[in-house]
Design goal:
Elements (H helix, E strand, L loop, with lengths): L2 H11 L13 H29 L6 H15 L3 H13 L5 H8 L6 H23 L3 H11 L1 H6 L12 H5 L6 H12 L5 H25 L4 H20 L1
Helix pairs in contact: 1-2, 2-3, 2-7, 3-6, 4-5, 4-6, 4-12, 6-12, 7-11, 7-12, 10-11, 11-12
Length: 245
């Protein structure tokens, strides 16, 4: 993994002012970016935990801190993952063949399924972060954000084709093999301070991401960038729930 790969990953996935990518945009670069997504998650998780810690020293309530942390993550990622979640929910909620599903996902406007998915995910995320803040569990907040990005690596596993010949999915779908077990092992090592809650979070992220992306591939006809964004958001909520329940 080269500095240019990390630079490209940050430019694609965050608002970090890293300038124009110097790497040619092809499937090799796309696969490298997906391999680096959990590293971006570590950065985002660290910023989220630091923000929560800093806000805990103000008069803000735990619930307000949860709201601000979730809003910060949306800002840092340009809201791309939330947009992907809404589009994917609307697509999966419609009737029709894969072509019809893709048409709904490309529509751009949020339908009832998309709005409902956003409300549920944001509310659960807010309350879960607030619960971790109440316990001073700063590391757990960072861990949940970081481990959720493993879902994108799983979603790009070999065997799942892109839904379209163009777009983000065409660049990254089917590019991941060895990175999946490597990141799971790394996540398991990072989960040690959290005990069984940390290992439970990994379990729900891995199993959930595998099942969700497989279902999306069947319904949509392959993997898209929206599906990966949805997988990350759902994995983040699953990890937070595992760490708070």
């Amino acid at each position: 993994m080269t500095p240019d790969t990390l630079r490209l990953a940050l430019s694609w996935l965050t608002v970090a002012p890293v300038g124009e990518p110097r790497t040619e945009i092809d499937r090799q670069a796309g696969g490298a970016v997906i391999t680096a997504v959990p590293l971006v998650g570590v950065l985002l998780g660290g910023l989220a935990a630091a923000a929560a810690f800093g806000l805990s020293h103000t008069r803000a309530t735990d619930l307000m801190i949860g709201v601000l942390v979730i809003a910060l993550l949306a800002l840092l990622t340009r809201g791309m993952h939330l947009d992907g979640l809404a589009d994917t929910a609307d697509g999966l909620g419609c009737y029709g063949d894969p072509q019809r599903v893709r048409e709904v996902m490309r529509d751009g406007s949020a339908g009832p399924f998309g709005v409902a998915a956003l409300v549920v995910v944001i509310l659960i995320g807010t309350v879960s972060v607030a619960a971790l803040v109440a316990e001073n569990s700063w590391y757990a907040i960072a861990f949940a954000v970081a481990v959720s990005r493993v879902a994108a690596v799983i979603g790009c596993r070999a065997g799942l084709a892109p839904a379209d010949t163009t777009g983000f999915g065409a660049l990254v779908a089917g590019t991941q093999r060895w990175a999946i077990p490597v990141w799971i092992v790394v996540a398991a090592a990072a989960a040690y301070p959290l005990g069984w809650h940390g290992y439970a979070a990994i379990g729900v992220v891995v199993v959930g991401a595998w099942a969700f992306t497989a279902h999306c591939a069947r319904r949509i006809g392959g993997i898209t960038g929206d599906v990966l964004g949805a997988a990350i958001e759902l994995a983040g909520i699953a990890a937070l729930l595992a760490l708070t329940l």
